[in-house]
Each structure stands twice: as structure tokens, then as C-alpha cells.
């Protein structure tokens, strides 16, 4: 009998003898910490042995008692209970009917249902848990999942209200758009189904600039199992924008810098796409990028980049599952995943490129669990054609940017090593709340680790500390980190063929 099974049996016996209880009473009773007690209770809830109230904090009780109470109700009480249960089903049907016409935000659904937003969100999260709906994290748009909607999505309403796809867009000609996966500083990414081959892909739509041109060129030349696979790309000048953007465009004299831009979550406010002083001098600038496809500078043109769809989700979701859903992760799993990440970065650097935006959001998993590094919107060359250093900008995602990248100084490939140190730490160390993260992060960026980390992970601590060195020269190269992982944790290339999630 496993220790977990034995402890959960004790918790059930305790509830049977003492009645309903809070997690505080339970973890004190059995000498557990709160996290472990919660894990056992949620395991019991999944196996339908216990249930919790909607109070704060929740009160736990045995499911068998709930069933007994239901069976002993008087006829009129049963009628009331049935009414409440059927109300929940009716509410769910109403939500589904609303979402059949396209994606909506929670407050829009609440308004249509004429109920408090809090109740609507609760209903949506219950339906999400049951696999009936899904939420786009970056846009907060709720949609029916693939099975619920039978792939019949309304193209306009599945996107956010301020960025809709026109019927003549470069996407709708060959693809059915399933859902908007996210929106960043350089455009939108959509989950799509090809009308002819029937396969699922990810398509990134960006305004055609020098940056977009450099991104697609980088993806086209990178062929590695740990980098998102590039399929093809095409341009389209017929893609429609929102009415507000159309009106603005018609009233403003256009120039080469008059392009649609999107806010990039977590980036500097002044991080616009057409900074002539940026290191896009190394790769084609806006005008030459458009000219390469035969488009004049005064035409609003979009570039579509078709890539493999990574259905395993992001590393962010993987970390959140461990932090908030108590899903266990072994140290070997963590090291294996990080080995694949570092293998992909080593390959990027070997091609004279710097990613510049490495973070859990941009690290994905394929259907087989293999790591896939994505989002090459900030990729740049390490040196110019003469082999000389390049003046850099401070573009990126601030919490993960290296000190020299934040300062906009000259930097090379080792600027990618700093965020990898932060990512490896996040994979190893559980961070339970946003407040804890906010407090910990400045210390972590200065090589100060939380109490207990060095004792739990003495070897990893040394490596991560090196990677978080303030001076780039003190950080190891990706190749050396990979070699250390092989040496100290018995990892090798053969592990890349195994599942990692």
C-alpha cells in the first residue's frame, strides 16, 4: 500500500468520524503541510470520495454523506434540488448557444445571460474543466472546443473584436480558423485547419516589415527537432483591419512607417516595430523587406507564416500545472526538458543568431512531448557581414531580459543564457503565488536564491548561478551547458526521442 493511499484513507476515516473539516484542521491533525494536504484532498475529490463547499476557505466532506442527504430529502426538497441541478444544465446550454456564434469574453457572456460576472466565470471554468470550452490566455476570449463546435467557427468572432479577419484575407482562402492562440507585438497567431489536407497548423499573421522578413528567413534556415518547424509563408495585401484602423488609414497620409502594430505583452512601451536605429540594419529593413516581395512602401501588406501546431501547449502551462494543480514533476523530467531547450538554443547560436525572447511562453511542446522553441520575432544576427559587433536595442520581455539587453548595450549570444537560468529555476522551484514571484524575482536576477533551494538542488544551483552572472563573459555557452547536463545528469541525445510531458 503506497504512502499516499494510506494517508488518503486516514483523511477519509477522519471525515467519517468527525464530519466536515477545513484543510487547516486536516493538515494539523496529520502533521502535513498545507500543500500536501491539498494534494491529497484533490486526489480524493477526483476519485469522487470527497467534495468541497464553495465557501472561503472551502469545507471538505465525504461524498457518501452528500448522497445520503439527497436520498433522505422530502419530495418538495428533492424537487428544489432537481430544479437547482437543471438550472445549471440550462445555464450551460445557454453559454454553449452563445459561443456557437463565436468567441466572447466572460463579461459579454454575463451581460447576455443577465447574471453577475462572478457566476458566469465560475460556470465557464467548470465547463473548461470538463473540456467543453477553452480560453485564450492572452485575449481572454472563450470559445467552444474543437469537438463541441464540430470545427464550425465564425472567423470574425473567434478573433478579438479589434482584429478581425476579412473574407478575402490570406488565411480564409486555404484555412478554416479555429481560434486565435495569442496576440503579441508582431501580430496574431491562429490555430487553423487546412481546407485541403485537413491538418491542423499554426499560422502567424504579421505586418510585413523588415522584422517579419527576418523572422521568416530565420525559421526557413533552422531545421532542428527542438525548434518549431517552418512550413511556408505568403503575403497578402487584401487582409482587412478593424473599421477604426480603416478610417485612420484613409485619413492619414501613408509612409513606410505607417503599419499596424500590436502591443507586445510585457515589453517596453516604446518598443515599436519600426525603430530605424535597431539592429535590423543587419537584416533587411522595412522597405527592402516589402520590396523583396514586390510590394510598394505605401501598401499595407501582411505576411503569413505557416508552422507546425504544437498541441502539447507551452512551458508556462507546464509550470502552472505544477504550481497550482499539484501535478508532480520528477527532477529527471525537468532536466530532460531543459536539455532539449538548451539543444535548440545551441543550434540557434551555431547559426549566428540570437533569439532575444526566451521565456516559458515561447517554449512549446509537440504532440509527442518534444520541446519546440518558437516566436522568432526578435531574432537577430550575432555579428554583421564583416564579423563586427552590432549596436543593439533593449527589446524583449523585461522580466527575462539580461542586464546588458535591458541597458541596450552591445551583446552577443550569451544574452540568451541569462533567461535560460531563470527558466531552469522556474522549472525546479515551486512558486505558489504571484506575490511570492514578485518578491522573489529581483533577488533571483541578482543570484540570490530562496531558502532551501541550494540544499535541494546543489548542482543545479551552481550552474544556474553561473548562467545568471551579471557579466556576459562569466556565463557559459549553450554548448557547455549541454555538456554539463550530459555529464552530471546522465542526459544524452537519445532522450530526445522520448516523451517529456
Features:
3-stranded antiparallel beta sheet; single chain; alpha+beta; 501 residues; 5-stranded antiparallel beta sheet
Question: What's a concise summary of this model?
Answer:
The protein has 501 residues and is an alpha+beta fold.
Radius of gyration: 26 Å
Distance between the termini: 27 Å
Helical amount = 40-55%
Structural class: alpha+beta
Question: What's the mean pLDDT score?
Answer: 75
- Helix tally? 19
Biggest sheet: strands side by side, in what order?
6-7-8-10-9
Shape: globular
Count the beta strands: 14
Task: Write up what this structure looks like.
The strands form 5 sheets. The chain has a 5-stranded antiparallel beta sheet with strand order 6-7-8-10-9, covered by helices on one side. It has helices at residues 3-18, 23-29, 34-46, 63-71, 75-99, 106-113, 117-129, 146-149, 210-221, 243-251, 286-291, 315-324, 331-350, 403-406, 417-428, 434-445, 453-456, 458-467, 478-489; strands at 21-22, 50-52, 59-62, 133-136, 141-144, 175-184, 187-194, 200-207, 230-236, 302-308, 353-354, 363-365, 371-373, 380-381. The protein contains 19 helices and 14 strands. It is α+β, with helices and mostly antiparallel strands.
Topology of helices and strands:
Blueprint lengths: L2 H16 L2 E2 H7 L4 H13 L3 E3 L6 E4 H9 L3 H25 L6 H8 L3 H13 L3 E4 L4 E4 L1 H4 L25 E10 L2 E8 L5 E8 L2 H12 L8 E7 L6 H9 L34 H6 L10 E7 L6 H10 L6 H20 L2 E2 L8 E3 L5 E3 L6 E2 L21 H4 L10 H12 L5 H12 L7 H4 L1 H10 L10 H12 L12
Antiparallel strand pairs: 1-3, 2-3, 4-5, 6-7, 7-8, 8-10, 9-10, 11-14, 12-13
Amino acid at each position: 500500500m503506497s504512502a499516499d493511499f494510506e494517508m488518503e484513507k486516514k483523511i477519509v476515516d477522519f471525515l467519517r468520524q468527525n464530519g466536515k473539516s477545513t484543510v487547516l484542521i486536516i493538515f494539523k491533525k496529520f502533521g502535513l503541510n498545507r500543500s500536501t494536504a491539498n494534494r491529497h484532498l484533490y486526489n480524493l475529490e477526483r476519485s469522487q470520495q470527497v467534495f468541497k463547499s464553495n465557501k472561503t476557505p472551502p469545507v471538505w466532506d465525504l461524498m457518501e454523506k452528500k448522497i445520503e442527504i439527497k436520498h433522505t430529502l422530502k419530495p418538495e426538497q428533492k424537487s428544489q434540488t432537481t430544479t437547482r441541478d437543471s438550472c445549471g444544465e440550462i445555464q450551460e446550454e445557454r453559454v454553449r448557444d452563445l459561443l456557437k456564434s463565436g468567441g466572447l469574453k466572460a463579461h459579454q457572456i454575463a451581460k447576455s445571460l443577465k447574471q453577475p460576472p462572478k457566476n458566469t466565470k465560475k460556470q465557464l471554468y467548470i465547463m473548461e474543466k470538463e473540456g467543453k470550452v477553452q480560453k485564450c490566455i492572452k485575449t481572454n476570449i472563450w470559445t467552444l472546443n474543437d469537438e463541441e463546435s464540430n470545427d464550425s467557427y465564425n472567423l470574425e468572432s473567434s478573433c478579438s473584436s479589434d482584429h478581425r479577419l476579412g473574407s478575402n484575407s490570406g488565411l480564409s482562402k486555404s484555412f478554416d480558423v479555429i481560434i486565435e492562440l495569442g496576440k503579441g507585438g508582431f501580430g496574431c497567431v491562429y490555430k487553423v485547419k487546412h481546407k485541403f489536407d485537413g491538418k491542423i497548423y499554426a499560422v502567424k499573421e504579421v505586418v510585413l516589415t523588415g522584422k517579419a522578413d527576418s523572422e521568416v528567413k530565420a525559421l526557413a534556415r533552422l531545421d532542428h527537432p527542438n525548434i518549431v518547424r517552418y512550413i511556408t509563408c505568403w503575403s497578402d495585401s487584401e487582409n482587412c483591419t478593424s473599421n477604426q484602423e480603416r478610417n485612420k488609414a484613409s485619413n492619414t497620409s501613408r509612409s513606410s512607417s505607417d503599419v499596424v502594430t500590436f502591443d507586445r505583452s510585457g515589453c517596453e512601451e516604446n518598443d515599436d516595430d519600426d525603430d530605424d536605429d535597431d539592429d535590423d540594419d543587419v537584416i533587411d529593413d522595412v522597405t527592402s523587406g516589402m520590396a523583396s516581395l514586390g510590394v510598394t512602401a505605401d501598401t499595407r501588406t501582411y505576411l503569413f507564416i505557416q508552422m507546425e501546431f504544437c498541441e502539447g501547449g507551452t512551458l508556462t502551462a507546464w509550470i502552472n500545472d505544477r504550481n497550482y494543480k499539484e501535478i508532480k514533476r520528477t527532477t529527471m523530467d525537468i532536466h530532460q526538458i531543459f536539455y532539449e531547450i538548451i539543444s535548440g538554443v545551441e543550434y540557434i547560436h551555431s547559426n549566428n543568431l540570437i533569439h532575444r525572447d526566451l521565456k516559458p511562453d515561447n517554449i512549446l511542446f509537440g504532440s509527442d512531448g518534444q520541446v519546440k522553441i518558437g516566436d522568432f520575432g526578435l531574432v537577430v544576427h550575432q555579428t554583421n557581414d564583416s564579423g563586427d559587433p552590432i549596436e543593439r536595442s533593449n527589446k524583449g520581455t523585461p522580466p527575462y531580459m539580461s542586464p546588458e539587453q535591458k541597458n541596450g548595450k552591445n551583446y552577443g549570444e550569451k544574452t540568451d543564457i541569462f533567461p535560460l537560468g531563470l527558466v531552469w529555476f522556474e522549472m525546479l522551484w515551486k512558486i505558489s503565488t504571484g506575490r511570492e514571484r514578485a518578491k522573489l524575482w529581483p533577488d533571483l536576477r541578482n543570484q540570490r536564491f530562496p531558502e532551501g533551494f541550494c540544499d535541494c538542488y546543489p548542482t543545479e544551483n551552481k550552474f544556474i548561478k553561473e548562467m545568471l552572472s551579471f557579466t556576459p563573459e562569466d556565463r557559459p555557452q549553450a554548448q557547455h551547458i549541454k555538456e554539463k547536463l550530459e555529464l552530471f545528469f546522465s542526459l544524452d541525445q537519445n532522450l530526445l526521442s522520448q516523451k517529456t510531458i
